[in-house]
Specification:
This protein has 3 domains: 1-59, no CATH class; 61-240, no CATH class; 259-347, Immunoglobulin-like (Sandwich). The strands form 6 sheets. Strands 5, 6, 7, 9, 12, 14, 15 and 16 form an 8-stranded mixed β-sheet that branches. It starts with a strand and ends with a strand. Helices cover 1% and strands 39% of the residues. It has 1 helix and 24 strands. Strand 1 (2-14) and strand 2 form a beta hairpin. It is mostly beta strands and 349 residues long.
C-alpha cells in the first residue's frame, strides 16, 4: 500500500466545543483511481439537533498559505465575527503560513495544535501575522501547545503586528500575546511543550522565546525567564533568545503551469471589429507564483491587474467570419500552459 501522507480529521463541532474527533491517513491500494482510509470509523460521531452537523477538516502536512502580493493591496485575510477560533484544529507539522490577518474573533485567534489535545507534531513558521480588532480576553493571541510529540516542534513568528486593540490600556488586564489555551487544559505538573519564538518582538534582533511555567525548559532554567505583561499570561514566561534563527521549513518547487480563460468575447455572441479594424480580447490567468506572460493567437497580452488576473490584447489583420482564439500563459519558472483556452467566435460584417 502507498501512504499518501494526507491526514483527515473528522470533527463533530457543537457550539460549546468539539464533541468527538478521530484522525485517519489516506492510502492507495494499487488502484490510482481509488483511495481509502487506513482504518474504519471507531466512533459514530453523531451530532444532535437540526443545527449541528459533522464537519471534516483537511489537516495535511506541508501546507503553505501565502498572500498573492504581500506588498500590494491583496492578501490572505481571515475575517471572523462571533467565532470560536481562527487557526484551529491544525496538526501543525511543517506548516508554513505567510501574511495572515486575523480580525474580530471573540475567542481563540491562533489555537494550539489539535485544539484541546494540545499536540504539535512538527515545526511551524508564520511570516507576517496581523491581529486586528480583538477585544479583552484571558485567551492569548497565540496559544502554547502542551505536547511536543516528536521533540522537534517549535513555532516561529516574525513580522507580527497588533492593530486596533480593543482590550484597554492596562497591560496587566490586556489579552496576553502568548499563553496556554483556554477551555480544557492539561493537569500534568510537568510538560515537555512547544516553545513559541517571536522574532524581533523587542526590536531588531531581539527575539523572544515563550514557554509554559510547567515546561521542563522553564523548570531547568527559571532564572532566565520572566513575566512581562502584556506579552506573558497566567502561565507563560518569556526569555530573550538573540541566537534564534527563522527556519526555512519547505523549499517548494514550482512545477505547475498557469491556467487561462478568455472572458471576452463571449461564446456564441457575434462581435464587430473596432474602428481601427482590431478586436480586443480580454481574459484572466492564475498561477502559484508569477506569470511571465500571456499570448493570444501569437500576440502578447498586456497585464491589467496584478499577475495577469486581468489582461487584454488587440488582434489586427482580421476579416469577418469564423475565428479561433487560442490563449495560454507561461510562468516565470518556465511552466507553459499545456491546455490553452480555445474559443470559436464569429466576426460580424
Amino acid at each position: 500500500m502507498k501512504m499518501l501522507g494526507l491526514l483527515l480529521t473528522v470533527l463533530v463541532v457543537l457550539p460549546f466545543g468539539v464533541l468527538s474527533a478521530e484522525s485517519f491517513t489516506l492510502e492507495s491500494k494499487g488502484d490510482p483511481a481509488q483511495i481509502a482510509l487506513d482504518h474504519a470509523l471507531e466512533n459514530s460521531h453523531a451530532a444532535t439537533g437540526k443545527k449541528y452537523r459533522c464537519e471534516v477538516a483537511n489537516l495535511p502536512r506541508n501546507v503553505t498559505v501565502e498572500s498573492a502580493d504581500p506588498e500590494g493591496v491583496r492578501g490572505h485575510t481571515m475575517h471572523h465575527r462571533h467565532s470560536a477560533g481562527s487557526v484551529s484544529y491544525a496538526r501543525f507539522d511543517h506548516h508554513v503560513y505567510k501574511n495572515l490577518r486575523i480580525s474580530q474573533t471573540n475567542s481563540e485567534p491562533f489555537n494550539r495544535g489539535l485544539d484541546d489535545r494540545s499536540e504539535q507534531h512538527g515545526p511551524v513558521t508564520v511570516d507576517g501575522l496581523t491581529f486586528s480588532g480583538l477585544s479583552r480576553s484571558g485567551i492569548p493571541f497565540i496559544q502554547l501547545s502542551d505536547y511536543n510529540v516528536n521533540g522537534e516542534a517549535e513555532t516561529h513568528v516574525r513580522n507580527l503586528k497588533i492593530e486596533d486593540r480593543r482590550d484597554g490600556d492596562d497591560d496587566a488586564l490586556r489579552r496576553p500575546l502568548v499563553d496556554m489555551g483556554g477551555g480544557a487544559r492539561t493537569r500534568d505538573p510537568e510538560i515537555s511543550g512547544v516553545p513559541v519564538i517571536v522574532h524581533d518582538l523587542f526590536g531588531a534582533g531581539k527575539h523572544a522565546k515563550f514557554v509554559s511555567s510547567r515546561d521542563v525548559q522553564f523548570t531547568k532554567a527559571k532564572a532566565r525567564y520572566r513575566e512581562q505583561k502584556p506579552y506573558t499570561g497566567e502561565e507563560s514566561r518569556v526569555t530573550d533568545t538573540p541566537e534564534a534563527k527563522f527556519p526555512k521549513l519547505l523549499d517548494p518547487i514550482d512545477d505547475q503551469p498557469p491556467a487561462t480563460i478568455i472572458t471576452w468575447p463571449k461564446r456564441g455572441l457575434p462581435v464587430k471589429l473596432g474602428k481601427d479594424g482590431t478586436l480586443e480580447v480580454r481574459g484572466t490567468s492564475t498561477d502559484d507564483y508569477e506569470i511571465a506572460g500571456v499570448v493570444v493567437n501569437g500576440v502578447e497580452a498586456s497585464d491589467l491587474d496584478y499577475n495577469f488576473t486581468g489582461w487584454s490584447v488587440k488582434l489586427s489583420g482580421l476579416k469577418p467570419g469564423k475565428l479561433k482564439l487560442t490563449a495560454l500563459a507561461t510562468d516565470k519558472s518556465g511552466n507553459r500552459e499545456q491546455t490553452a483556452h480555445v474559443l470559436m467566435i464569429t466576426i460580424a460584417e
